[in-house]
Amino acid sequence: MNIEKKQGKTVTAYSHSRSAKIFSRVLTVLTAVTVVYPLIFIALVSFKNNQEFYSNIWGLPQIWRWSNYSYAWISGKIGTYSINSIVITLSAVLGSVLIAALGGYALSKMCIPKAELILSILMMFNFIPGVAIYIPLYTQMNSMKLSGTLWMMILPYLAWQIPFSIYIFKKFFDSVPSELIEAARADGCGEIGIFFKVILPLVRPAIATVMVFNFINIWGEYMWASIATSSSAAIQTLPVGLLYFRGQYGIEWGPFAAAIMIIIIPLMLVFIYLQKYFIQGLTSGAVKG
């Protein structure tokens, strides 16, 4: 009897485990389809004209119109907006990574009093709504004679990414053994040399995590971009440039979707390139401490 009961429990547990696996796989597939299909839909629309868009919205394009991309790039000025977005995004990302890495290292390894309190105060800035600072920030940028320049975009974007980036870096630096730093100091290495030669190579996952988060936040940001570029069309970025596809008689959906793909593709490439370190960063140092 006892053997039969144990066998019955084993069969039941196996059945529940198998059902859980099937359910998790089905849920994963449905989630993947939900995420991927809109991208596929936009990609297909980018090869259609308006007539085909309205008559065959869900089907494959009858003619693959690569000219929609050239129209978006040249006539829609997406090429000019792309250059602005690349310069602004790379400058802000690299600047925020460097400043945040230095700040996180100082708070973690340089015995600064009340380091956790300082970190908490920095994190509080993330909860300030953007609408509360846009007007004073715009006024300040004008008073600094930065209106109409790329710096009007770069400096705010850089500053907004610093609090959370410092948090990520500090948690990673906390996991680095202090003995390595003491050994480097004993060998006569200065603090700057320790930071760049010893510490940074050990926290590549943190760098990748911060770069991906900051790139995504900056590349597609619209609200401040629309405000800051209202005084000069020369510094408009990709999200703002999409508005130019809204013509007098409606939207050219093919070129509009092509412009959206031009915005999405760099995000996908950055994530694919850095995904190994990004995932490692989310599952290791970023959750310690």
Task: Note down, in words, how this protein is organized.
It holds the Pfam family BPD_transp_1. It is found in: Cell membrane. Keywords: Cell membrane, Membrane, Transmembrane, Transmembrane helix, Transport. The chain has helices at 2-45, 50-55, 67-75, 78-109, 115-124, 134-143, 151-174, 178-186, 191-199, 204-219, 223-228, 238-241, 253-283; strands at residues 246-247, 250-251. With 289 residues, the chain is mainly α. It has two domains: 2-45; 67-287, MetI-like fold. The radius of gyration is 25 Å and the shape is globular. The N and C termini lie far apart (51 Å).
Task: Summarize the entry for a quick read.
By secondary structure, the chain is an all-alpha fold. The chain is built from 13 helices and 2 strands, in the order ααααααααααααββα. It has helices at 2-45, 50-55, 67-75, 78-109, 115-124, 134-143, 151-174, 178-186, 191-199, 204-219, 223-228, 238-241, 253-283, and strands spanning 246-247, 250-251.
